[in-house]
Specification:
2 copies of one chain form a homodimer. The first copy, chain A, folds into 3 domains: 92 residues, OB fold (Dihydrolipoamide Acetyltransferase, E2P); 264 residues, Bira Bifunctional Protein, Domain 2 (BirA Bifunctional Protein, domain 2), CATH 3.30.930.10; 119 residues, Gyrase A, domain 2. The first copy, chain A, has 14 helices and 23 strands. Chain A is an alpha+beta fold. In chain A, strand 1 and strand 2 form a beta hairpin. In chain A, 28% of the residues lie in helices and 25% in strands. In chain A, the strands form 5 sheets. In chain A, strands 6-9-10-22-21-20-17-11 form an 8-stranded mixed β-sheet, sandwiched between helices. A 5-stranded mixed beta barrel of chain A has the order 1-2-3-5-4. In chain A, helix 11 packs antiparallel against helix 12. Chains A and B meet through strand 1, helix 3, helix 4, strand 6 and strand 7 of A and strand 1, helix 3, helix 4, strand 6 and strand 7 of B. Strand 23 of chain A pairs antiparallel with strand 23 of chain B, so a sheet runs across the interface.
Chain lengths: 575, 575
């Protein structure tokens, strides 16, 4: 029997429990042990009067000793309603100490207050905590739900290689020097994008894989050098087919894992709408705050900082919580970090107006603002006036920030939406050319193909993201299934013929032997588990995570190797 | 509807089929197309009299064009009993050519006779073949069966990192230079051995993972640089528990995938038995031939080449097939390649004796041989006299070789056995010391621990392999769960204190905080699929395999990278 399974119905049975000593209390003639395994905790009792030898063994027990105990299940005198085994205890007849334990450097409880460094170094102790074990179990269960669903829909799980070719036009690759092929390198995949398309060219029809992907980027919070992706691709489909089946997948996950019934179809929003109403392409729709266009309101105001700017604002209710001047100063710094030249504010409180731009404000302005923001109560309006993109993105970030302060980002609420009608390209100041918004295999909207050479900014893509609570959970697109169109896209991206041939030659050739219309999606699996587990820390959902500097504090990876090893790989260190 | 699904019951229905043109026959006023997708083939008919425009489109069709056709299911005039859709055909009303196709460089049929090089370069065309698609589907289905079984037995699938630390005491690692941690390297895992043990230390109780592993070894046939492993570990178990649950897993796989009922428990054989009776620790038990000890028989023979040697032999029946002198010469070379100094043979045919050692043979010898080999019919006896190990292993190899010639290795027969009681160590001439037979985390048999320092060759291990048809399908062991015993093993392997600390310091410390008895197993998943698919070529069960020189002919991996990329990684090429 497992430690979490002992119940009233077992009273009188003789059973064996294996586990770790969570806590021991020696009351002289009687010793109580809380015995723990992955299923829970049982109370285990040693009575001196029963058997002195067994009792002597029990006296040796300390925290985290591993034991097997055999005895009779009995009713507890003082029941513990907080644990499922709290009605009963094990009256021990025999004990075997399976392994002794040194005093662990961190406590095995959720609120141990150990530093993250200690927790990662002693990950095998940290993972003894129920919360982390529960997360790993949730992760495994979610993977099983996904596989069950996709298997039942005739998707074939296919493994693609980890040792593959560098990703052209992608983020930075992890490289693996080849020993056999001198001065050549494999790359770890950033995603199996090209190979899953090859499976469609091969006629595999429906593919999926829960697969490790890799990006050698500077790690921000909640990024890991390796991450897990639910990778899906289908043939003979359009956007509607892909959205429909993936909605059902998401619905199944929420039902099985959280017991939540999601109503289908999920809402959809165009990219332009998302940007103009929420200032971001992954809006958090758990709260209603929206960006409003204020150029019309302030068109008569002669204010340098408003001149030729896109003026937008958000309004937040202040009935319960009021933003202090200090807080507003912080928010001003916040939007400046997001590129805005400043933050203006207007407070309406019991019909009194205070504002950073009070001298420009007329009653008419206030009336119009009240109308636009549909204000009935006290409110605080934040305004940014800048270039359109800066105004929107900085206000979009501010929108999330103030919602956080107001407690509007409820962890137990899930607001999902598809974002569609993405632009095909975005202009990269850095590269001085248009680059793909998604990736160069994305199919342009048919009626926009004519703009490819003349007005690339007008071209929309058959691309879609699924957004939950302000996080992009997944994204995908219909792919190009025609080699000529694929070449055209590379040319629109200003790749030379030589570059196209070198980087994508095999891929374009592959498309030329009869390629079905196809498309797919990839979900960020770690992020999905974070969402389902209700944690903001990616390390909580990965068994052996790495630090921000991409090291494993448990094993010490990465580490030094010998010169002989490098010589075999035809490389040497540069110091 | 899919191309393989159209049936008599569908007659009269209007349906759409999507697929590739497998074959087109233009008979003037009528065009027949075999339309193919992953489920099968349907006959599709265009009649000029129906619709001239549609017919004109159909006239453009060539092999591997991708089309969508809509029409009415009708009964076929001349039925094709060879395919499941052979009773019906689709009378087409409309057609859309979804993608045209250049003439493919290899034929899309199983017996295309294309070179392996062409098949790998155009893998996306090779994968259009039914046999390869069936293998990938079998692979996916087998993975699903394994996951279902293990999930139902409360195993938790946990992902371990791909970017990890070099494996001490293992094969050659693939290394990944770290950009952030200058002159340091990750290694790709050869197996998640240490980390799955960490999960047991963490109390996760039952772990599994279907996981990619990596070894940078010179590739023999049927080896790939990356391979897939079914990795399993359990706590609070002994050998019997692990064998029992894994037998049930194997039984389930054979039942679900092959429809074969395996009888449990599976046979077991000790390592010593396997070596002495079959000359190998992975005996093929589909045929009964056994090595017999012949020293007693020939004890009176004064023959230099028998002196102080271990003399063993095998006997093969020759009722139907006779081994020619030329064939015997080949087999002599064969055993010499396996280290033996020669091969002696005795032929008994209609009571006539011919032999390479005829001058030493008496009637008594022949009588004794007949008794030992239980000969009733014509037979050929092969004898090797050499050092014990050489005699056994060369005869073991010969045993498989002659069984192959005699057609005794039936692909549709499955003979399974566990091999147990492995020695803990084997002496490495190369290293001048004992090395681990399995790996250094293997638990020695309790009553042999006393020999660790004095007679390491006497120490047996709690290790086990599962062998099918002469292939090792998996292996594992009970692990050491005590830090002191673990240190002792490293010392028996002649590691210095410094080496132990540097290579295994964290691991030994981890064992010191209370470690449950635990053990596990790892199955070679690629090999399992080969066995179930009945193929001898590992490339047949992997979507994108690499060549013997570890290159991908499709993508060109590995490939050159820029000096800038290497500089970022603090390495440079050595030419």
């Amino acid at each position: 029997m497992m430690c979490g399974q002992m119940r009233k119905e077992d009273i009188g049975k003789e059973i064996t429990l294996n586990g770790w000593v969570q806590k021991e209390r020696n009351l002289g003639p009687i010793i109580f042990i809380d015995l723990r395994d992955t299923t829970g905790i049982s109370q285990v009792v040693f009575r001196k009067e029963n058997d002195e030898d067994v009792f002597k063994e029990a006296e040796k027990l300390r925290s985290e000793f591993v034991v097997a105990v055999r005895g009779i299940v009995e009713e507890r005198e003082s029941k513990n309603p907080n644990i499922e085994t709290g009605d009963v205890e094990l009256n021990v007849k025999s004990i075997e100490i399976l392994d002794e334990a040194n005093t662990p450097p961190i406590y095995i409880k959720d609120d141990d207050n150990a530093s993250e460094q200690m927790r990662l170094k002693y990950r095998y102790l940290d993972l003894r905590k129920k919360s982390l074990q529960d997360n790993l179990k949730l992760r495994a269960r979610t993977a099983a739900v996904i596989r069950d669903f996709l298997n039942s829909e005739n998707f074939i799980e296919v493994e693609t290689p980890v040792l593959t070719n560098p990703t052209p036009e992608g983020a930075r690759d992890y490289l693996v020097p080849s020993r056999v092929n001198k001065n050549s390198f494999y790359a770890l995949p950033q995603s199996p994008q090209q190979l899953k398309q090859m499976l469609m060219v091969a006629g595999m029809d429906r593919y999926y894989q829960i697969v490790k992907c890799f990006r050698d980027e500077d790690l921000r919070a909640n990024r890991q050098p390796e991450f897990t992706q639910v990778d899906i691709e289908m043939s003979f489909v359009d956007i509607e087919d892909i959205i429909a089946i993936n909605e059902r997948l998401i619905q199944r996950i929420f039902k099985e894992i959280k017991g939540i019934d999601l109503k289908l179809p999920l809402p959809r929003m165009s990219y332009n709408d998302a940007m103009s109403r929420f200032g971001v392409d992954k809006p958090d729709l758990r709260f209603a705050i929206e960006l409003k266009d204020l150029n019309e309101v302030f068109k008569d105001v002669d204010f340098d900082l408003f001149k030729d700017k896109t003026i937008k604002g958000i309004a937040v209710g202040e009935s319960e919580k009021e933003f202090s001047r200090k807080h507003i100063d912080k928010l001003t710094s916040f939007v400046k970090e997001h590129g805005a030249n400043g933050l203006f504010w207007i407070r309406i409180k019991n019909n009194e107006i205070s504002s950073s731009i009070k001298k420009f404000l007329t009653e008419e302005h206030i009336d119009k603002l009240k109308e636009i923001f549909d204000l009935k109560d006290n409110a605080l309006i934040f305004i940014v006036a800048d270039k359109k993109e800066v105004t929107e993105t900085s206000l979009g970030a501010l929108r999330n920030e103030v919602a956080e302060s107001l407690g509007l980002r409820d962890k137990n609420k899930y607001a999902l939406t598809w974002i569609v009608d993405f632009p095909m390209f975005e202009y990269s100041e850095e590269d001085g050319r248009y680059v793909s918004k998604h990736h160069p295999f994305t199919h342009p909207v048919d009626e926009d193909i004519k703009f490819l050479e003349t007005d690339p900014e007008k071209v929309r893509a058959y691309a879609y993201d699924i957004v939950i609570n302000g996080d992009e959970l997944g994204g995908g697109s219909i792919r190009i299934n025609n080699s000529e169109l694929q070449s055209k896209i590379f040319k629109a991206l200003k790749l030379t013929d030589e570059e196209i041939e070198r980087k994508f030659g095999y891929f374009i050739e592959a498309l030329s032997y009869g390629t079905p219309p196809h498309g797919g999606i990839a979900f960020g699996f770690d992020r999905l588990i974070m969402l389902l587990a209700g944690t903001n820390n990616i390390k909580d959902v990965i068994a052996f995570p790495k630090t921000q500097s991409a090291t494993c504090l448990l094993t010490g990876a990465p580490s030094k190797v010998t010169d002989d090893q490098l010589e075999e790989l035809h490389i040497k260190n540069v110091f």
